[in-house]
Amino acid sequence: MSTADDLRPGERAIDTDPPGDAALRFIGRIETPWARREDCPRQGRLDGPECRVVLDPAWHDALEGLEAYDRIELLYWLDRSRRDLVRQSPKNDGRTVGTFALRSPVRPNPIGTSIVHLERIEGGTLVVRGLDCLDGTPLIDVKPDRCAFTPLAPAKPGEDTAP
Amino acid sequence: MSTADDLRPGERAIDTDPPGDAALRFIGRIETPWARREDCPRQGRLDGPECRVVLDPAWHDALEGLEAYDRIELLYWLDRSRRDLVRQSPKNDGRTVGTFALRSPVRPNPIGTSIVHLERIEGGTLVVRGLDCLDGTPLIDVKPDRCAFTPLAPAKPGEDTAP
Asked: Which intervals hold domain TsaA-like (chains A, B) (predicted)?
């Protein structure tokens, strides 16, 4: 993986203005066993180690009802990733591929998404399996997995009930 | 769905500081058939209408290699959603559920995620099916679907090759 001052052969960065189109609010932190980027698995596994998703107290009440779901989607901010690479060389062999054809943390908006298994909820903390991010990663969002979720609101005209 | 000046019975909003923990850069716009929120389907369907994901020119080269994937993940910014609701009442019947137990656009960081079918790529535009967002929605990210993607980088110690 490339760092701010290190481009691999063939990789291409672009000059951009500082980002400022919208602002995020971190809503908690994720605790994982991995303190260094080189220790993180490349992709999380649902039989991986337990990790803890610690919500800020203001948002604890927003977890009400989440216990009904086995699988949930987490969004988090990959805060140590550069954001200016258009082409990357995952194998560092001179061959490159476009940033959007990779799930690398290096991307214009370094947001990680994972589907994880929700083991249990302990107050304002979710205990999950399936993550691959660094210890201390800022949390952005928690949602039911789209496959398990059926909208609670009434259907709209033209929608059938089994999408 | 609640708007900025309209709380349904039982819903709860919180006071928060303006968000400022991280900044997003929009990388394009999404063109859909839906101009009003009440026209959007509640969840996208892979057999839904074609939509166009128009990348800014600076990022066109970052699409290289994406054509290998049938299913891709899109992240986008739900720019007309309030961000302060902890509990919501989807049916407007006095019963509420926590924001994180819903896939409502109303959430502290209103980021939508969809898995869509990639029909074709036309220059810097992706033609896809499966979206449910408003016409003009700002694009944040494009990734291969995690289920279809195998990391290109070499495995790390302890990882087997078929995660």
From this structure: 24-154
Tell me if B111 and A140 make a contact (CB, 8 A cut-off): yes
| DSSP letter string, A128-140 | EE---PPTTEEEE
CB atoms B101 and A21 under 8 Å:
no
**Nearest CA-CA partner of A116 in A142, A140, A136, A96:** A142
> The complex's ipTM?
0.91
User: Which of A109, A125, A146 best probes binding to B when mutated, by most B CB atoms within 10 angstroms?
Assistant: A109
The CB density around residue A10, as the number of other CB atoms within 10 Å, is: 14
Does the pTM exceed 0.90? yes
**Which positions ≥6 away from A116 have C-beta within 8 Å?**
A44, A46, A51, A71, A72, A73, A74, A128, A129, A130, A131
Structural domain contains residue B86: yes
User: How far is residue A68's CA from residue A71's CA, in Å, rounded to a whole number?
Assistant: 9
**Domain range for A100:** 23-149
- Per-residue pLDDT tens over the stretch B60-118: 999 999 999 999 999 999 999 999 999 999 999 999 999 999 999 999 999 999 999 99
Q: Which of B100, B111, B143, B146 to mutate to test the interface with A (most CBs of A within 10 A)?
A: B100
Residue A87 in domain: yes
Cα–Cα distance measured from residue B66 to residue A99, given in angstroms and rounded to the nearest whole number? 9
Question: Using the beta-carbon criterion (under 8 Å), do B98 and A143 form an inter-chain contact?
Answer: no
Query: Is B78 contained in some domain?
Result: yes
- Do B111 and A62 count as a contact with CB atoms less than 8 A apart? no
SS3 B150: coil
Nearest CA in chain B to A16: B58
